[in-house]
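Need a sequence for this fold. Nothing fancy.
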């Protein structure tokens, strides 16, 4: 079999593309730049692609049997912020894009991207940011009513900000602070779901290098707008099975951990397809994949978006275990590796 279970599959490639993918800003609705990065990698790997109307990228890989179509996906969009209004002192009020964990944003660096192509750096701060000035600096809530952006330009009032070209509706990109440690931990914002974008590209590279065809015609989707609920709502109608790759949850009584692949039995939208989930569990067990089966109570995936859009397919969810989701996240390259191996086995078995 292709897998050497003592090694991380495509490790050097994954480490090479993680900075490219993670350091390219892509909050939901802003997919221009990350699509360029993904397309460039696909072209280097020798794949053709299509870009759909929602800017979803799809790669169609011929199988041994093209009478059936299966699909997999990862979402390239992340959490973010948008300018809600401009204050009289030149700071910015923000609204959330998706569900970033607001308390973790206090003190984070950011960039403001205008609709005219200019960008400016800034810092996300509490409205009471100094213990030497504000008596409520420690007790002030860290939510989107009490966080502002301080722009790194000489601005004294709203008019100064408008002169920079900054206006309501401009994106605010949060610094992901992406790091791979010596012990192969990946710590960063937006591991959900950029880790899965990387692992899908790793599987495509493995297929190309090994000259292996999937068992069935396979569509690889790189999706946007998942974090706001409608990512995979426009897939091909004739898909029979859909295994999406997204983060596995870690914490409380959940079984997931940062070194394992999570297989979801159920999330907030209900159970995943019984037969397809069983097939993935069986493959993982028989091939010594480090996996867990879990329930995600506060979670939805692209399978749910596809089902709500009327895609008549079986659906399942796998992904690397990720700690501190929607905050300062962390996983291990082993978890990405285990998920890659399971996806490869599913597609080629």
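Here you go.
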């Amino acid at each position: 079999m292709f897998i050497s279970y003592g090694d991380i599959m495509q490790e050097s490639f994954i480490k090479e593309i993680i900075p490219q993918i993670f350091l390219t800003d892509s909050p939901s609705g802003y997919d221009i730049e990350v699509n360029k990065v993904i397309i460039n990698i696909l072209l280097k790997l020798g794949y053709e692609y299509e870009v759909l109307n929602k800017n979803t990228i799809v790669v169609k890989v011929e199988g041994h049997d093209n009478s059936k179509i299966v699909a997999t996906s990862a979402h390239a969009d992340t959490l973010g912020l948008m300018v809600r209004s401009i204050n009289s002192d030149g700071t910015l009020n923000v609204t959330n894009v998706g569900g970033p964990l607001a308390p973790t944003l206090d003190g984070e660096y950011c960039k403001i991207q205008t609709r005219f192509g200019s960008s400016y750096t800034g810092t996300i701060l509490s409205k009471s940011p100094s213990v030497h000035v504000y008596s409520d600096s420690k007790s002030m809530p860290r939510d989107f009513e009490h966080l502002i952006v301080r722009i790194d330009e000489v601005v004294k009032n709203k008019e100064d900000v408008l002169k920079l070209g900054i206006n309501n509706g401009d994106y605010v990109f949060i610094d992901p602070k992406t790091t791979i440690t010596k012990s192969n931990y990946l710590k960063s914002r937006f591991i959900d779901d950029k880790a899965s974008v990387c692992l899908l590209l790793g599987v495509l590279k493995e297929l190309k290098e090994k000259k292996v065809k999937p068992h069935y015609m396979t569509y690889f989707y790189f999706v946007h707008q998942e974090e706001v609920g409608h990512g995979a709502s426009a897939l091909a109608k004739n898909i029979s099975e859909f295994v999406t790759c997204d983060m596995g949850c870690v914490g409380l009584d959940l079984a997931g951990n940062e070194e394992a692949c999570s297989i979801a039995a159920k999330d907030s939208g209900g159970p995943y397809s019984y037969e397809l989930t069983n097939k993935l569990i069986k493959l993982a067990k028989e091939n010594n994949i480090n996996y867990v089966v879990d329930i995600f109570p506060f979670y939805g995936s692209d399978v749910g978006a596809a089902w709500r859009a009327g895609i008549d397919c079986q659906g399942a969810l796998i992904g690397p275990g990720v700690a501190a989701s929607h905050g300062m996240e962390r996983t291990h390259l082993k978890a990405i590796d285990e998920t890659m191996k399971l996806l490869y086995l599913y597609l080629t078995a």
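For context: The chain has seven helices and 19 strands.
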